[in-house]
Design goal:
Elements (H helix, E strand, L loop, with lengths): L2 H14 L6 H25 L7 H52 L3 H17 L5 H21 L4 H24 L6 H17 L5 H51 L6 H21 L4 H50 L5 H18 L4 H48 L7 H18 L4 H20 L5 H18 L3 H28 L1 H5 L4 H27 L5
Helix pairs in contact: 1-2, 1-3, 2-3, 3-4, 3-5, 6-7, 6-8, 7-8, 8-9, 8-10, 10-11, 10-12, 11-12, 12-13, 12-14, 13-14, 13-15, 14-15, 15-16, 16-18
Length: 560
């Protein structure tokens, strides 16, 4: 049953039910509500932080408590009214008894007296309940007067006979009802019904003298048996309560054992909390203990729980401070990711985002409530970048495929090219081919090397077939090589590699020439010096020429 259902039933009972008759049902609904209410409160104790409680739930709590308080107020007012009425009724019955006594003592006219007595009885019967502690005495006084009148006045025997028969029947009914209570299992119901039957027995008038002693004996025998049943129940309850006390003391020791364990992480606190809550359930299932022990044992049990949950709250407060710091760090990473998500520097931005993801892992968990939200935001920023990048490269792939087709077509065109008579015109055409190849743009990465090799192969073949002097041809061929490198799509890196290779070669030749020059004196003093000197000088001259050629190549590179 939820709180809405509880509120509806409460309001319906209060509006339509009899105040006393609904008391038991109201108590059940009250217990049901406070079970839910205490469960919500327990959740606060368990987590160490106030949960988010919506306004509707708070309003329901207020409405239910207001309804319960309203019923309690009405009930209190009702009992106050009943008490007031009982006191009034007591005064009225005392007045009737006084009047009754005077009539019996002084009245000589039996006919008139009988009528008056009947009137008194009617007055007596219509008067409601009186205070319970006064009932026996007042009823005994009235019964004594009634019996005195009934048994001492032998007039109107026929009317008296009818009353005696009626009372005999009523008292037998009361005895029968009392005996049925011997089978009743609910002791509270036995106590309530017995009080009611005793009141009814006292209010029923006298019956036949010849049956009175037997009726009275049967009645009191049953009453005594019922009181013995009630006494036995409470005696048994005391023994059960003693056993319950032993069980609850054992549970306290178990609680002490649990809370003595060290808890360093959330899982430890969670494990211990579950164990304690299970013991709490077991505690509730055990039942009552002796009254003189109840308060102390409950305070001991609850005190241990309070100490545990205080320590738990302290732990989670410290942990929340750590979580707050982690949240701040992760919020900064989200800001950086937001900036990077808009970048078109695909490689550097991708590398930066990957580093942020590593940093995110290093920071650690920021708490159950915040982590998911933070991660969702961070991942959204990262995904936005990688989605945009993917779309960009998909578009580039389409363009690159088109470029591949164009370059393959150009290669076929270069293959089919026929040399003209003038080498200069041929070189101009070949350079135009190189420029066109470069300007077409990138091709798919997997096809990059293949298409470049095919282009270089056909363009080099045309340059190699040129008919011109060696120096000019060497220059032209190196320029063509530079054009090819430029067309590769990675020209800057390749230019640097080629420059480095030429410079290294120059350094090697310079060292070689210097070595030759240093050894000239040695060769001069050797047999066959002339031939040796000639060879060395030739090598020196060849080396210097090669150095000049390499330096000329360096000048052909594009200006940086």
């Amino acid at each position: 049953m939820n709180k809405i259902e509880i509120l509806k039933k409460l309001l319906a009972l209060i509006e339509n039910g009899e105040l006393i008759e609904i008391s038991s049902e109201i108590d059940k609904l009250t217990k049901a509500f406070y079970a839910i209410y205490n469960s919500e409160k327990k959740e606060i104790d368990t987590t160490g932080k106030d949960p988010d409680i919506d306004a509707e739930s708070e309003s329901l709590n207020t409405d239910i408590i207001t309804a319960i308080d309203s019923y309690k107020k009405k009930k209190k007012e009702y009992y106050a009214f009943i008490k007031s009425e009982e006191e009034k009724n007591l005064i009225l019955k005392k007045e009737i008894i006084a009047d009754f006594a005077k009539l019996i003592e002084k009245e000589d006219n039996l006919g008139k007296l009988f009528g008056t007595i009947k009137e008194i009885r009617e007055r007596w019967n219509i008067i409601g309940a009186i205070p319970q502690d006064k009932h026996s005495k007042i009823q005994a006084e009235y019964s004594k007067l009634s019996e005195q009148f009934s048994y001492n006045i032998d007039i109107y025997k026929e009317l008296k006979e009818n009353d005696l028969k009626k009372n005999y029947s009523l008292k037998n009914q009361i005895i029968h009802q009392a005996k049925s209570l011997l089978e009743e299992k609910r002791i509270k119901e036995v106590e309530r019904s017995l009080r009611k039957l005793q009141n009814e027995w006292d209010e029923v008038g006298p019956t036949f003298k010849e049956h009175w002693e037997k009726l009275k004996e049967e009645y009191w025998s049953t009453v005594k048996e019922l009181y013995a049943k009630i006494k036995l129940h409470y005696t048994d309850q005391k023994e059960v309560q003693k056993e319950n006390l032993v069980k609850k003391l054992a549970l306290i020791e178990k609680v002490k054992e649990i809370i003595s364990q060290e808890a360093l992480e959330h899982k430890d606190w969670d494990k211990l909390t579950k164990e304690l809550l299970e013991l709490q359930k077991e505690w509730k299932s055990i039942g009552h203990v002796p009254k003189d022990s109840n308060e102390k044992i409950w305070n001991d049990f609850r005190g241990l729980f309070d100490n545990f949950f205080d320590a738990k709250s302290t732990f989670y407060a410290a942990r929340n401070d750590v979580f707050d710091k982690k949240k701040e760090l992760k919020a900064k990473l989200i800001e950086k990711a937001e900036t990077l998500s808009k970048s078109t520097d695909w490689k550097n931005a991708a590398d930066a985002l990957k580093r942020l993801q590593e940093d995110w892992k290093k920071i650690g968990h920021a708490g159950q409530h915040a982590e998911q939200k933070l991660w969702k935001s961070f991942r959204t920023k990262c995904d936005a970048f990688f989605t945009t990048r993917e779309e960009h490269f998909k578009k580039m792939d389409i363009e690159n495929e088109d470029n591949l087709n164009l370059k393959e077509a150009l290669i076929e065109k270069i293959k089919a090219y026929k040399h003209k008579a003038d080498p200069i015109e041929v070189i101009t055409d070949l350079k135009a081919f190189s420029t066109e190849f470069t300007e077409i743009g990138n091709v798919p990465f997997k096809k990059k090397d293949t298409v470049y090799k095919a282009y270089k192969s056909v363009i080099d073949e045309h340059y190699n077939n040129l008919k011109m002097d060696d120096a000019e041809k060497e220059k032209i061929l190196f320029e063509a090589k530079l054009d090819s490198l430029k067309a590769s799509g990675n020209s800057e890196k390749l230019f640097q590699q080629e420059k480095e290779k030429i410079r290294n070669k120059i350094n090697d030749i310079v060292k070689e020439v210097a070595n030759y020059e240093n050894n000239l004196g040695f060769f001069a003093n050797s047999k066959g010096a002339e031939a040796l000197l000639k060879g060395v000088n030739g090598n020196i001259e060849k080396g210097k020429n090669e150095i000049d050629k390499l330096k000329r190549r360096l000048k052909l590179f594009p200006k940086e």
